[in-house]
């Protein structure tokens, strides 16, 4: 049996006066696509920040998070910096704010590329980095790489920005990719493209995926197994197909029913 | 799109006018300052003309009460003003940016302490702090004046840097950079400094104007660059007694001071409009 890439055991996150996440446990195997479902405020984004060791200082974590065999909770910042990028990378919800507005896109991708090449002891000269940046842009299927490398974030479309953000995350060659509501800020057509892109890339590159969303339909397309969260607790977990078609919990059932009604309304059926 | 395309060129043109006016004012004064190293109409302490002469072909800006050429003094004053302005802003920026970023990164306690420290220092007029520093040294000199003004400006720069840095630190792209394993040093160098410089730059230009005026005040009080340096502030002080009989002696250094301060501010605004990529191309 293969050991899990990410194991979360009894994770509790609390501020001095409020418990935000309580007793959360789940695990992701290498190459597995895992969906985390919940409405806003359910603690799903906090969970992803905890996995990368980026919680605000006011939030106290308890329990255990092991990523690639290393404990995250209580680890010194120096080890976390090395682990981020190497083991895990994140794509955020809003690509406009997740990119530095004053830095050309090419240079933003070049940063993690250079760090990765150095870490692996490979040649990290300008030519090698530029070649790598170009191949990453091709990997996320961005047209006109020459123009994009010199563009600033505000000069390209939302979908293109999110592709650049994905390229930045993949530049690290992580073993786990966290996608935190990566399609919420995009229009429906672009959403579908980004979801397809992420799914095919993680499959192609053999990366595990932690996909966070409130959108059941999107999660259903992406994930093999899912977990439903509410108010910081796990409600239901299991294979995506089972949870999303034959939910056992009443909350999940209401979510599924609401999503179905929404779809039917869109299609104009009774 | 159509609203933007009619709106933008007008804004661009206004930005350009600001930039060029600033460049002409500052450029003229910089040129005078540089030329003063190689050539002035007369030697600084040369009593070449009659007392309190009006501007003429021989003395373009007239003469002072000892018969010294005022245009010569204005040129050397330009040099001093620029040296003091640049020096003080450089010292103020180094101390201010370093402590401001430190405060933004520090623990809650150290941050509060530094912020309070900045506020207390700002509550004292820059000039007063500078006078204290000059008084603490043995004698007034150009170097002391620069150091004093630099220290006086540093809390203003520090406070702005702290606020700007905190703003940038709250942005998603900093989290994104951290998630991808960027060290804090690299984040400061690659993300924070470039993102605060456009705003800080305009403010530093403002501080430059303040420093030049404060130097004039220090010299006016006899705490600035001592003779044989000529300073616009000391020219103002010396012309004070004869302002009714020979007004040009006070008006001309005043105008020079005004032109430099206004010019620097226009130039900074223009530069920001030109080089800030988020403003460029809308």
Automatic annotation (TrEMBL), chain A:
SMART domains: AAA. It is found in: Cell inner membrane. InterPro entries: AAA+_ATPase, ABC_Ni/Peptide_Import, ABC_transporter-like_ATP-bd, ABC_transporter-like_CS, P-loop_NTPase. One of its GO terms (molecular function) is ATP hydrolysis activity. Keywords: ATP-binding, Cell inner membrane, Cell membrane, Membrane, Nucleotide-binding, Translocase, Transport. PROSITE patterns: ABC_TRANSPORTER_1, ABC_TRANSPORTER_2. CDD domains: ABC_NikE_OppD_transporters. The keyword Membrane applies. Residues 6-256 form the ABC transporter domain. It holds the Pfam family ABC_tran. It is a peripheral membrane protein. One of its GO terms (cellular component) is plasma membrane. Belongs to the ABC transporter superfamily. This is Oligopeptide transport ATP-binding protein OppD. The lineage of its organism: Bacteria, Pseudomonadati, Pseudomonadota, Alphaproteobacteria, Rhodobacterales.
Automatic annotation (TrEMBL), chain B:
One of its GO terms (biological process) is transmembrane transport. It is a multi-pass membrane protein. The chain crosses the membrane at residues 20-39, 80-106, 113-136, 142-161, 244-268. Its main location: membrane. Residues 78-268 form the ABC transmembrane type-1 domain. PROSITE patterns: ABC_TM1. The keyword Transmembrane applies. PANTHER family: OLIGOPEPTIDE TRANSPORT SYSTEM PERMEASE PROTEIN APPC, PEPTIDE ABC TRANSPORTER PERMEASE PROTEIN. Belongs to the binding-protein-dependent transport system permease family. This is Glutathione transport system permease protein GsiD. The lineage of its organism: Bacteria, Pseudomonadati, Pseudomonadota, Alphaproteobacteria, Rhodobacterales. The gene is gsiD_5.
């Amino acid at each position: 049996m293969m050991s899990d890439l990410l194991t979360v055991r009894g994770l509790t996150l609390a501020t001095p006066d409020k418990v935000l996440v309580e007793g959360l446990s789940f695990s992701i195997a290498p190459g597995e696509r895992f969906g985390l479902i919940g409405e806003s405020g359910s603690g799903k984004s906090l969970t992803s920040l905890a996995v990368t060791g980026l919680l605000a200082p006011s939030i106290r974590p308890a329990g255990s998070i092991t990523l690639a065999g290393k404990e995250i909770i209580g680890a010194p910042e120096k080890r976390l910096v090395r682990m981020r990028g190497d083991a895990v990378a994140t794509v955020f919800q809003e690509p406009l704010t997740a990119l530095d507005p004053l830095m050309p896109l090419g240079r933003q991708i070049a940063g993690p590329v250079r760090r990765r090449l150095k870490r692996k002891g490979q040649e990290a000269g300008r030519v090698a980095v530029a070649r790598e940046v170009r191949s990453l842009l091709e990997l996320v299927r961005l047209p006109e790489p020459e123009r994009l490398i010199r563009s600033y974030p505000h000069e390209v479309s939302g979908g293109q920005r999110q592709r650049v953000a994905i390229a930045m995350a993949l530049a690290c060659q992580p073993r786990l990719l966290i996608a935190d509501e990566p399609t919420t800020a995009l229009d429906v057509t672009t959403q579908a493209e980004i979801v397809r892109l992420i799914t095919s890339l993680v499959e192609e590159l053999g990366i595990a995926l932690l996909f966070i969303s409130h959108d059941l339909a999107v999660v259903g397309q992406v994930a093999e197994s899912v977990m439903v969260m509410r108010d910081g607790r796990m409600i239901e977990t299991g294979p995506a197909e089972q949870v999303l078609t034959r939910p056992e919990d009443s909350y999940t059932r209401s979510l599924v029913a609401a999503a179905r009604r929404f779809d039917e309304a869109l299609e104009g059926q009774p | 799109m159509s609203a933007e395309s009619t709106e933008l060129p007008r804004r661009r043109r206004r930005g350009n006018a600001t930039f060029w006016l600033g460049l002409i004012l500052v450029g003229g004064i910089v040129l005078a300052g540089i030329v003063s190293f190689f050539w002035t109409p007369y030697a600084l302490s040369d009593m070449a003309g009659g007392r309190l002469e009006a501007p003429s072909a021989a003395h373009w800006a007239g003469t002072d009460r000892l018969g010294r050429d005022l245009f010569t003094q204005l040129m050397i004053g330009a040099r001093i003003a620029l040296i003091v302005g640049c020096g003080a802003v450089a010292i103020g920026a180094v101390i201010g940016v370093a402590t401001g970023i430190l405060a933004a990164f520090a623990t809650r306690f150290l941050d509060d302490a530094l912020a309070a420290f900045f506020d207390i220092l700002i509550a004292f007029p820059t000039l007063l702090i500078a006078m204290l520093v000059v008084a603490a040294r043995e004698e007034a000199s150009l170097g002391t004046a620069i150091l004093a003004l630099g220290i006086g400006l540093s809390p203003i720069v520090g406070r702005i840097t702290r606020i700007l840095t905190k703003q940038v630190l709250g942005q998603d792209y900093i989290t994104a950079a951290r998630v991808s394993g960027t060290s804090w040093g690299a984040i400061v160098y690659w993300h924070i400094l470039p993102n605060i410089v456009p705003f800080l730059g305009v403010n530093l230009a403002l501080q430059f104007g303040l420093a030049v005026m404060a130097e004039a005040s220090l010299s006016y009080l006899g705490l600035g660059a001592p003779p044989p340096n000529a300073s616009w502030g000391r020219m103002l002080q010396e012309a004070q007694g004869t302002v009714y009989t020979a007004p040009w002696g006070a008006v001309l250094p005043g105008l020079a001071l005004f032109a430099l301060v206004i010019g620097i501010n226009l130039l900074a605004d223009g530069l920001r409009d030109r080089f800030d990529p988020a403003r460029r191309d809308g």
